[in-house]
């Protein structure tokens, strides 16, 4: 049967409460000088589109003082086509959705998977990516295929889409929750988990920072799990945002950005059908 255990966070870790963002990042991300949201009045003034982000390579990050990332470049492209000035507001994952509801930001650009629960409170843009599932294991692991996962203990970051996905798709496993990716990796190192299920876009960063040697034997695209920008329900700019994304896909700009950050991933059918 599918069993779920809650692992209590160690001191200093932050629980990802209510976040349905694919993946997670290791502790101590690179410092950033991105402006922080502080009040409701600053949300959207003078043609500025304020985009809520969290530091997580390759979605949004800094390298040698230069801001990069797939979601970062997609959001900049959308803002440019809308004729607005993008302003990126970095905050913790658990603060993104409350900030959007409060009007402190106008849009979330952080690899958010569209779910029925989120659609009750927010609107989603047209998809600009799809969710990919990844399993990380220690180098001496006997797990090589999806079938090998059955009967194993799988670590997952609490509150992410992987938690729900595992519960739906894998019945013969034990699921243990960690507050973040670093804690999940530590669980593997201590022998408390056999594998860590993460968002594929974040795997390279996780492996690079892990204190133990990890590899990725399994990666695949989850069905019916589109990723889009999140906006407040009823925001009239949704039509403009959707049109900008569609234009970026058809013009080839989306594929150029996608290839820069996600080259190993195959091109999903929905984007092939749009002429990408």
From TrEMBL:
Residue ranges annotated for the Solute-binding protein family 3/N-terminal domain, each copy included: 48-265
Keyword Hydrolase assigned:
no
Domain of life, per UniProt, equals: Bacteria
Signal peptide start and end residues: 1-27
Q: Which CDD domains match?
A: PBP2_peptides_like (cd13530)
Q: What Gene3D superfamilies does the entry give?
A: Periplasmic binding protein-like II
Sorted UniProt keywords = Signal
Q: Which organism is it from?
A: Nocardioides luteus
Which protein, by its recorded name, is this? Solute-binding protein family 3/N-terminal domain-containing protein
Quote the InterPro entries the UniProt record gives.
Solute-binding_3/MltF_N (IPR001638)
